[in-house]
Structure formats: structure tokens, C-alpha cells
């Protein structure tokens, strides 16, 4: 739940000033923006009381009559994007411009709204004709990020769903989620489900929510020592409602450990195995710089091929990777994986006969 201090700060962050294109905002509009930013239990009269205090006691805002409504504005001496650009260095402008490009869809509205003036200031700072600006401005166009796999047209989450999920995750509040799993195809959605959102992860261009089921606590006696935690693709969520109900964030959950240890994003994992691969020509040379395992061993074979061995966890991602290399790699062991690939390739050979 937001405190009075954070509510006042949020009010000042969204209010325009006399240099803004739309320099005034009504109390109901401010209330709607605050609710959208994650504040709960708000109504116009409560917001107006805070505005009146900011005007009468702190002199942070000014008001004017607009018919029956009051309109509000941040006082001119408070910082705003039109003044921040004069203080922002070129390096800071580049940092905020890159943050806006690569991470803005991962920021909850409560944060992105607050720093929107800094994004605008960065754009203004880089557009000015200053002696050092060319290098800073052109750097933005000199870097980018490219996916290492074949680029697919990934489905985009519903903006309302993304907003609700990121806000609830930020404020640690429960969600009511309507989800359609892949196995349901075009059938109807599953019934709404109560979830505790723990994290948001992007993998291969797809956004996922890591969520805990509050109805599935640990059951050590049944061999289940942890809460049930599951991945939900955001583009498969048709509706997400922020309930406003806070939950106690689990102290045992760390996203980096979840990704590394649970390997949930490798999909359908199995017990670790000792994997041995034989590569023709230069096909396996990249593994000398980017090993497939911490205990990887590389050695030449009598027939001239390169043997790469190491402990890995079999998964869908491992299989996708091996198949992407094609006929220049052979799975030597374990026998079960070798037989699986042999069976698959016999089917492929028959299909392309």
C-alpha cells in the first residue's frame, strides 16, 4: 500500500507545469493516473485533500477554477523535463535513451510514469546543438541487440494485461488471471485463477510471468517441499485483474536461482547426464569459447572429428540446439538420447525420400 509520502511524490511526478503542452490537470484525471500507477483505495476527494495540502502548506502546486472543477499544476520552480535537460550530461542522456529502448516494456507503470520526464529530457538533451552531442547522439544508432536464433513474429501481450501484471508484481499484490494453456488450442479459457506474481522474464522474445499458487503450499510429507510455482506466457493471458490484496513475498525465492537451478526456461527438463558429442570439421569449435558445461572436456578423435563431453540437463532447448546443428554433429552418449535422435532422423529420411 502506498504511503502518504509516496502518494504526494506520485502526484508531483504526474502533474504538468506551465511549460507543459497541457499545463493543467483536473482532480479526477490525477486520480485515474494514480490508480493506473498502482495506488489503491483512492477517490477524488482524498486526492484533492493531498493537493490542497501541497498548495497551502508546501507551495508545491497551484490551482485554478475551471467551471465546477479544480485544475492543478506543479509550481514552476520544481524540476521538470524542460529544466532537467540543461543539467543532464550527455552520458546520462544516452543511458536514459537506451533504458527507454531496451527496458521500458519491463518497467511497471508506477516507475515508467515517474521517470517519463527523464526520458523526455534525454531526448531533448541529445537533440540540442552542443559541441559534444554528435558522439552521444550517434551512439544510440551504433548499438542494437539481435536474437541468435531464427527470428519469429512473436505474439505480443495485451497492453492491459502487461500493465496489470507488472504493477501487481511491483507492489506484490495478488492477481486474478484468466489463462489459456497451449494444450487447450482455440478452446475456451480456463476459469480465473488467483496467483501471486513473483517475477517477469523475457525469453527468446516471449514474456513470461513466474507466479506462485497461494492454494498449493509446501507438502514435505508428499515430497513437495516448496510452493507450487509456474510459468505463464503473458500473451496467453486474456485477462489479469489486480485484486489490491497484498501477499508476503517468499523469502526463499530468488529469480536468478530459479532460472539457474530450476531451469524452467529450458522446458521439460530431466536428470543430468554425461553428454558426448562428435563434431565434423569446425562445427564444434565455438564450444571451446562458449562451453556447454562447466566440466566440459574437448579432445580430438582418431577419425579427425572433435569430441565434446560434459554434464548437461536434457531438455527441449538442448534438443532444439542439437537439431539446429544438423548432420555435422553425432550424439555418442547417453544411449537413450542417441536412440531418440536416430529414430527421429530415420523418420526424417523416410519423409524426404
List its traits.
single chain, alpha+beta, Arc Repressor Mutant, subunit A, 4 domains, 4-stranded antiparallel β-sheet, 12 helices
Helix and strand topology:
Blueprint: H1 4-14, E1 25-26, H2 27-36, H3 44-56, E2 61-66, E3 69-74, H4 81-87, H5 90-103, H6 109-127, H7 133-139, H8 159-171, E4 173-179, E5 193-203, E6 206-212, E7 229-233, E8 237-246, H9 255-262, E9 273-279, H10 286-289, E10 297-300, E11 306-312, H11 316-325, E12 329-333, H12 335-351
Antiparallel strand pairs: 1-3, 2-3, 4-5, 4-8, 5-6, 6-7, 9-11, 9-12, 10-11
Helix pairs in contact: 2-3, 4-6, 5-6, 5-7
Major sheet: size, sense and barrel closure? 5 strands, antiparallel
Q: What is the tally of beta strands?
A: 12
In N-to-C order, the SSE pattern is HEHHEEHHHHHEEEEEHEHEEHEH
Question: N-to-C terminal Cα separation, in Å?
Answer: 65 Å
- Quaternary arrangement of the chains shown? single chain
Q: Provide the gyration radius in Å.
A: 27 Å
Question: What is the tally of helical segments?
Answer: 12
In terms of DSSP E residues, the strand content is: 15-25%
Taking pLDDT < 50 over at least 5 consecutive residues as the criterion, the unreliable ranges are none
Order of adjacent strands in the largest pleated sheet: 7-6-5-4-8
Query: What would you call the structural class?
Result: alpha+beta
Helix content: 25-40%
Shape: globular
How many domains, as an integer? 4
- The chain-level mean pLDDT equals 85
Amino acid at each position: 500500500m502506498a504511503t502518504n509520502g509516496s502518494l504526494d511524490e506520485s502526484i508531483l511526478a504526474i502533474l504538468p507545469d506551465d511549460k507543459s503542452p497541457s499545463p493543467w490537470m483536473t482532480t479526477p484525471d490525477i486520480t485515474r493516473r494514480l490508480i493506473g500507477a498502482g495506488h489503491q483505495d483512492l477517490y477524488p476527494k482524498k486526492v484533492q485533500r493531498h493537493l490542497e495540502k501541497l498548495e497551502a502548506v508546501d507551495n508545491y502546486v497551484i490551482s485554478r477554477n475551471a467551471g465546477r472543477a479544480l485544475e492543478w499544476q506543479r509550481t514552476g520552480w520544481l524540476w521538470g523535463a524542460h529544466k532537467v535537460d540543461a543539467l543532464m550530461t550527455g552520458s546520462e542522456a544516452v543511458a536514459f535513451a537506451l533504458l527507454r529502448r531496451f527496458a521500458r516494456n519491463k518497467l511497471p507503470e508506477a516507475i515508467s510514469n515517474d521517470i517519463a520526464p527523464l526520458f523526455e529530457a534525454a531526448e531533448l538533451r541529445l537533440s540540442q546543438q552542443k559541441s559534444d552531442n554528435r558522439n552521444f547522439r550517434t551512439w544510440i544508432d551504433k548499438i542494437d541487440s539481435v536474437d541468435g536464433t531464427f527470428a519469429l513474429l512473436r505474439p505480443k501481450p495485451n497492453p492491459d494485461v502487461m500493465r496489470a501484471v507488472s504493477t501487481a508484481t511491483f507492489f506484490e499484490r495478488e492477481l486474478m488471471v484468466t489463462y489459456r494453456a497451449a494444450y487447450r488450442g482455440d478452446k475456451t479459457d480456463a476459469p480465473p485463477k488467483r496467483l501471486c506474481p513473483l517475477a517477469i522474464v523475457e525469453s527468446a522474445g516471449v514474456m513470461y510471468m513466474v507466479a506462485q499458487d497461494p492454494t498449493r503450499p509446501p507438502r514435505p510429507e508428499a515430497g513437495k517441499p516448496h510452493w507450487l510455482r509456474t510459468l505463464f506466457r503473458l500473451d496467453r493471458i486474456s485477462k489479469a485483474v489486480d485484486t489490491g490484496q497484498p501477499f508476503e513475498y517468499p523469502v526463499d525465492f530468488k529469480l536468478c536461482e530459479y532460472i539457474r537451478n530450476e531451469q524452467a526456461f529450458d522446458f521439460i527438463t530431466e536428470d543430468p547426464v554425461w553428454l558426448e558429442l562428435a563434431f565434423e570439421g569446425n562445427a564444434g569449435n565455438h564450444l571451446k569459447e562458449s562451453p556447454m558445461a562447466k566440466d566440459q572436456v574437448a579432445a580430438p578423435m582418431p577419425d579427425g572429428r572433435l569430441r565434446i563431453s560434459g554434464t548437461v540437463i536434457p531438455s527441449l532447448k538442448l534438443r532444439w540446439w542439437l537439431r539446429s546443428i544438423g548432420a555435422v554433429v553425432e550424439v555418442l552418449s547417453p544411449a537413450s538420447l542417441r536412440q531418440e535422435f536416430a529414430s527421429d532422423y530415420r523418420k526424417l529420411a523416410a519423409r524426404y525420400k
